[in-house]
């Protein structure tokens, strides 16, 4: 499996996606830093323009990193898998003396590992930049994280797992419709479902919802490869 994963990274030019992830991380870091310390989230009178419960710095960090990397993961899955079906390059791959399910699983895992690592590192870097900034500047947002706490890292990792795994739902839709665009559009819909507020109600801060969503995502991942051995490629 590890050989297949490395082959997928090499075949799909993972360096291109690495450079893209670095650019995304830098842009997110600059944007969050500006939100926190340069007052772009403030009203003209200098007070923070944020809904109740989102006036802490972790709120924009989690929101924007989750949005960007859910879309980024879905784009990669669309490129690695859905486009391969559309362009018939999957036909060649399925001639390898390896089960189709194993090939699909290696593609999905290759994308998942890359984006989990990229998202986790990006979050850590942004939190660290904010932590450094608080030593010299006044933050518009309340600082609600402690990088010296083990629970901080556990929560960060678990949230990254949930977000990246959600992309498997988008992949299932894209494969069903044989459309890369459908994969990406579904990722946007998932963002609205999981991050948007309806009045004071939001699923973003639910303790149960992430666990349920992860189980659902794994279920869709299994469905995506379940019939691979008998699925018609035409």
- E-strand count: 2
Sheet with most strands: strand arrangement:
1-2
End-to-end gap: 26 Å
* Class computed from helices, strands and strand pairing: mainly alpha
Overall mean pLDDT score? 83
Percent helix, as a range, is over 70%
Number of helices: 8
Give me the strand/helix succession. Answer: HHHHHHHEEH
Strand percent estimate = under 5%
Largest sheet data: 2 strands, antiparallel
How would the global form be characterised? elongated
- Stretches where pLDDT is under 50 for at least 5 consecutive residues are none
Give me the Rg, rounded. Answer: 19 Å
What does this structure look like?
The protein is mostly helical and 234 residues long. 70% of the residues lie in helices and 2% in strands. The two termini are 26 Å apart. The relative contact order is 0.15.
Descriptors for this entry?
mainly alpha; 2% strand; 234 residues; two-stranded antiparallel sheet; 8 helices; single chain
List the helices and strands and how they pair.
Elements lengths: L1 H10 L2 H24 L20 H29 L2 H5 L6 H34 L16 H28 L2 H16 L1 E2 L2 E2 L6 H18 L8
Helix pairs in contact: 1-5, 2-3, 2-5, 3-5, 3-6, 3-7, 5-6, 5-8, 6-7, 6-8
Summarize the structure.
Helices cover 70% and strands 2% of the residues. The chain has 8 helices and 2 strands; from the N terminus they run αααααααββα.
